[in-house]
Structure formats: C-alpha cells, structure tokens
Amino acid sequence: MDSHAHFTVKTYSWIFAWLLLLLGITVLIAHYDFGRLNVFAAMAIATVKACLVVLYFMQVKRSIKMVQIYAGAAVVWLAFGVILTFADYLTRHPLQ
Amino acid sequence: MSSSTTPTAGEVIQHGRDTSIFGMWVFLVTEAMFFGGILGAFFIYFYLHANAFEEASRHMDIVMGGVNTLVLLGSSFLVALGVHAAESNQGKKTAVYFWIAVLCAFAFLGIKSVEYADHIHHGYWPGQAWSYAGVDAPQIRLFYILYFVLTGLHGLHVIIGAVLLGWVALKAPKGVYNDGKYAWVENAGLYWHFVDIVWIFLYPLLYLIGAH
Amino acid sequence: MKAADREEHYLNFDYGWKSWLFTLDHKRIGILYLISITVFFVIGGLAAAMVRIQLLTPGGAIMSPEMYNRTFTMHGVVMVFLFLIPSIPAVFGNFIVPLQIGAKDLAFPKLNLFSWYLYLIAGVMILYAIIMGGVDTGWTFYTPYSSIYSNSHVIVMGLGIFVAGFSSIATAINIIVTIHRMRAPGLTWFRLPLFIWAQYATSLVIILGTPVLAITLVLVVVERSFGVGIFDPRLGGDPVLFQHMFWFYSHPAVYIMILPGMGVVSELITTFSKRRIFGYSFIAASSLAIAGLGFLVWGHHMFVTSQSPYAGMVFALISFLVAVPSAVKVFNWCATLHRGQITFETPMIYALGFLGLFTIGGLTGLFLSAMAVDVHVHDTYFIVAHFHYIMVGGMVMAYMGALHYWWPKMTGRMYPRIWGMISAGLIFIGFNLTFFPQFILGYLGMPRRYYSYPEEFQALNVMSTAGASILGFGYLLPFIYFTWSIFKGKPAGNNPWGATGLEWQISSPPPVHNFNEPVVVTEGPYAYKETPEDPV
C-alpha cells in the first residue's frame, strides 16, 4: 500500500453513487417478469456491486497481488461448489 | 535482516501493515466460503421450488429491506472515508465516521428486529409456532428457515463488525493509527465491507424474487 | 557460525505453568499441541480397540448395536477432527515452519495460542458429548438421521467440531501469511523445502473447505434445536444436499490429512538417502494440484445416492485425475531413493512404509473412483481398508516419521535407535495384518458400521483384531522410549542426521528466538554433496 496512491474522497463518492444507482436498477428490474432471467440479472448486478465494494472500498485494486489472488480464489471456489452441485440437480430425472 | 539491503522504518511498517491486512483477507476468504455454502443451498432450493420461494418472498417487506440496504451501503461509504482519514493521520475523523457506521449497524439491527417481530406475529417463525397453511406451505416454510438462518448469521456478523468498528473508533483519536500503522483500521473496515457485500446478495434473493 | 548459547533455549528459559499456558512461542505451542493431540489419539485408539474386540465374534462380543454405533462414531470423530486434521500442521507446522524459513516466529503468535485454546475447547465439547452417551450417526452425520431421528448428542458434538474447525482455520491463516511474508532474505519460493510447500497447500485447503463444513454443521444443529427442516424431504428439503455440502469439505479434508505427511516424506527421503529430491518443482506443483483438484471430486462419496449418474461421471473422471499428482510424487520419491546413500534410521523406515502403504491406499482409491466398482463395495470394509491404508499406513506413519525425525531437534535428545526401529517394524506388520484382511472382507461383502457379521467372515476378522493388537503395542512403545529419552537420552547436537535445512543449523533445542544471527539463504534445499554417480 503506497502512501502516495490513496483513493480520493471523490472516487469513493462516485462508487457510492454507482452503488445506489445499481440498487435502484435491481429493484426496478425485479418488478418485471423475465422468468428465469430475473434472478440471473439480480445476481449479475449484485456481483457488479460487490466488485465495486471489493475493488474500491476494500482497496483490492491497490492491494498486494496476493490479496487480489485470494479474493479471486474465494469467488472461483464458490463457483466450483455451486456449479458442480447444480450439475447433480440439473441432470436428475426423477421418475414422475 | 541482511546487512546489504536494510529496509527503512517506513518499509518495515508497510510490510507489517500489508502482512496484517493479508491475514484479514485470508480470514475473509473463509467467511466468504461460509456464507457461500448456505447461499449455494438457497440457490439449489430456489431452483427446486421456484414458485413457492417467490410466493414466500412476497411476504417480505421490500421497503424495510431496501432501507436496510441503503443503511449498509451508506455505512460502507462512511467506513471507506474513515479508513481514508486514518491513512492521513486524521484519527479523530476516523472515529466520527466509524461511530456513525456503528449507529447504522444499530439502525440495521433495529429494522431487522421489527421485521422479525412481524414475521413471528404472522406465524412465519418456522418452529413450533408455524401457522401458514396455504399452498406450498412446506416449501414456503423451507424458505423461511433459510431466511432466518441467513439473516440471523448476517446479523451476528453485523454485531461483530460493529464491535470491531467501535473498538477502532475508541482508539483512533489517540493517534495510535498514525504514521502508517493503520492496519487495524483497514481490517475493521474490510470486515464491515464484507458484511455489506453479503447483504448486497441477500436483499435481492430474499426480498425481490417475488416482486414481478 | 557463532556457537549458539548452549545454556538457554526455548524449554528452559522460563518455567512454570503460566510460561506455558500463556506462551506466544510457536515452539512451545507446537509442544502443547503435541501433548493434547496425543491424548486424543489414545482416546480414538481405545475406541478402535473396542470396535476390534467387538468384531472378534460374528454375534458381536461385547456391545449392543446402539453402543457399537456410538463407538465407531467416537473413533471417527476423534481421529479425524482431533487427531489427523491438526496433527502435522499444528505440531510440526507450528514448530518447524518458522525454523525452515529462517523466521523468529509465525506471523500472528497470539492467533496461534488462540488456535490451541480453541482446539482444547473443541476437545472438551466433543469429550462431553462422548461421556454423556455419544453420537450414533457415524462421523459423517448423514441427514435426516442426524438432523431429525437420532436420539443422541449431535448438537454438542456438531458444535465441538465447529470450534475445532476454527482452530484449524486459525493455524492455516498463520501458516499461509508466514510463508508469504516472513521468509529469510534469499529464500525464494523454489528454494523452500518441500515440507513448506506441503504445509502451504494444506493451509489453502483448510481455508477454502472448512467454512463449508462449519455452515453444514450449523444447519444440522439449527434443524435439531428448533425442530425446523432444512434437509427434511417433507419440507421439500433434500438429505442429499447435506451430503454435497458435507463432502465438499470432507473430501478435501482427506487431503488436509495427507498433504502434510507427503511433505514430511520429502524431507525424510532426502535426508536419509543424502540426495537432492528428484523433480522438486513437480512435487511442489503436485501439492498445489492435489489441493485444487481435490475440491472437485466430492461426489465420488455419493455414487449410491440419488445423485445423478451424469454428475457422478464427472466426479469419477476428476477423481481419476487427482490420482496423477500423487503418483508423480511417489515416482519422484522412488527416483530420489535410486542410487542414494540410504540409511535405515527410524524416520526412514516410516517413510519407506509410507511409500508402499500410501501407494496401495491410493490405488484402491482408483478402483473406488470407478462407479461400477464403487456400487458394489461402497459401505463395505473395502472402503474402510482403503482409507485406513492412506490415513494410518500413510499419514500416521508420516506423523511417526516426523516425530522421530524432529524429536532430537525439539527436545535435544536422541531416543534409543533400536527401539525406534522395533516399534516402526511392529507398526508396519501390525498395520498390514489389521487392514489387509479388510480389503478381502469388503470385497466378499462384509458391510461397515455393522455390529455383527456372518460366520464365514470370522477368520479374517480375528486376523484383523490380532493385527490391531500388534499395531497398538507398536504405538505404545514410543511413549516409553520417548519419555525415557527426555531424561536419559544422548544429547542430540545441532544436526544428528547430517541433514540440510535451516532448522538443523541451530541448537537442539532451539534458542528462544530461533536464530541468533540473521539468516541469508544462498542455495536451494537438499543441497547434499553430489556423488560421482549423481546424474544431475
């Protein structure tokens, strides 16, 4: 963490504004019926918001490489777990 | 330390700070996997019982949940500003921002308590007192179990985060975090942002899936 | 190098219970762990003895079915969570990692002490559950039996395991951060001993997997405490989802249990053949590959559930793949031995035993990865034999090897060589006699977790129990000679084995702050003098 390269208050304010905007979009989209897409859209927007918090508020963009790798690893590992578990449930064909 | 490249005092402090922050991140990875585990279970059950979950979600108060989301996002913003202040030796400012964030935590928990009381009053507590008897009642009950466990665990982390923020806020005005020694300000902030991120995912999943 | 201060070291610089119970010295914390996990090893071993005695006769010799269920559950829970998982990381990870990287302690000494207290709390909780009557679900706590129907102390035991998980995570955080941030100047990643790579990979697995076990146990505890049903089919829950979540951790957990042992074996084989390791970077990479791939295979524990066979095929395929890095290691160890100047000290006997027994365990694991085979031998003694070959024939032997290797460093004393070798031999013989018959029993169809069995299986069961007695005696001997060595053992000196490695450059026992002079590293690990035959 280099003491000459802090994020500024201006940057933080912009990020906060984006977070509020994305929250508004999430709530708006939720009121329309896109079927299965609704939850994917909501999760996609939530992911973007989380990335903004991680990169800027949590300063991962400026952190040492290992912090960036570990933050990424958590996401990847969760994906492994969810995807492979879904691989089971999506391919079950129970007797009707 | 080898005699050929002795680090400066500032480099030593930075090394120590980066080490401490790295340690907190490794811990946050475990927290992510913890919440991720139960979120994964929620996704699976939502896939299996989409209609029931959407119906259950309609009984949530979107406004109260939304206000809570705003509260947490705002507190995250304030905490980021507080950390920024500590990075430039302004411990008193850090304390102000962090104390307001603690107030936000109380507000969040207060609203959550009102919601919980409301659910229990309507018979949605999934224990012995469950009294919803409409269509898909068993799967709606499953939604509520996951809701209470998810928000309960999240609430516990809000409390822990508030304690961390408060502890830092107590010490910050004394100047102990000056001159680069602000690792614990950053760490308390990291924990709080994590709490915020969990809610960023919980709000749409618990409150908005039935909104259409 | 300046003669180390032979008078003062980490054991004698301060006395009294407070200097131990409030210590922040990684070496003392390693010793504290050594004592506590040994206690639990004995408890788990007693449970095993009871199981083997019960199985001497087809009708069951000493226990009711309910008691038997609680006994094998106790054996599994104690051995997995209170012995195997902490073992090498908490004892030797704590003691040796800072020494091997030239650091004066771990990155977070207070967190280290806290991890030991968490371990103790977990141990007390689990013991309490056992004393109050135990749990009869098996260490795997499958739902809905554990969450709804079992009339046993699932909640306390589940919470105890939860706390043990935190202890594990605390140790892992310390090890990861220490290895990244506290290496001595000149000690680049590819100059690290392979023990360090193994500890690192293990800690990665702990970080990524243990929290999922934690949440799974929380859900079971919630389900039991509040009478709500997360895994209850009547509510639309799926008991198999519990298994997905449980095995997402518990399969990588077996890699938590074996990777440190593999790290130890790399140290032992190089020291006792006085050769550089063959294929250093492949072994290092294999540790990471095992850690990574190990997270993608958990469904192979669920082939006979309602898990879809298509998912099963994916899990089976990746399970075949995860065997490859382990095999790479075995080949590389063998290549290291080839044309080495081998000495048969006790640690080497354990390392060689590991090579053979881990290979058998690993190969039988490949058989089990094939769905078609697993369907027949799942829940039989074939599985029991498979994992005991890896856990006991592999990991416990590696642990004993580590203990016999680093004992002189930790205590400053040598144990009697001949007794060490006798004990290792008895353990090897006793182990095979105990568990090889179980492969046959499983293949012939004897189910596991049953308190009795058909008469035609008695001969093999008696053989197995006889082997267990020899094995138990083999484990008993070190208690005697290690204790003896503390008082009467020959002083070890800095480097009784003539090994490379920073831990052997300092006194035995080490000074309080490890290195009295700053450490600078200029060469790679295992830099033994090359012989004329050495092709490298």
Q: Kindly estimate the percentage of residues of chain B that lie in beta strands according to DSSP.
A: under 5%
Average pLDDT number of chain B? 92
Q: Percentage of helical residues of chain B?
A: over 70%
Helix/strand structural class of chain A = mainly alpha
Q: What structural class do you assign from the helix and strand content of chain B?
A: mainly alpha
Low-confidence stretches of chain B: none
What is the number of E strands of chain A?
0
Could you say how many structural domains of chain B there are in total? 1
Please trace the helix and strand order of chain A, writing H or E for each element: HHH
Per DSSP, the total helix count of chain B is: 6
From N to C, what is the helix and strand string of chain B? HHHHHH
Instruction: Please state the overall shape of chain B, judged from the principal axes of the Cα atoms.
Output: elongated
Would you give an account of this structure?
The complex is a heterotrimer of chains A (96), B (212) and C (536). Chain A is built from 3 helices and no strands. By secondary structure, chain A is an all-alpha fold. Chain A has one domain. In chain A, helix 1 runs antiparallel to helix 2. The mean pLDDT of chain A is 90. By secondary structure, chain B is mainly α. Chain B has one domain: Cytochrome c oxidase, subunit III, four-helix bundle (Four Helix Bundle (Hemerythrin (Met), subunit A), Up-down Bundle), CATH 1.20.120. Helices cover 78% and strands 0% of the residues of chain B. Chain C has 536 residues and is mostly helical. Chain C has a single domain, classed as Up-down Bundle (Cytochrome C Oxidase, Chain A), CATH 1.20.210.10. In chain C, 67% of the residues lie in helices and 0% in strands. At the A-C interface, helix 3 of A face helix 9 and helix 11 of C.
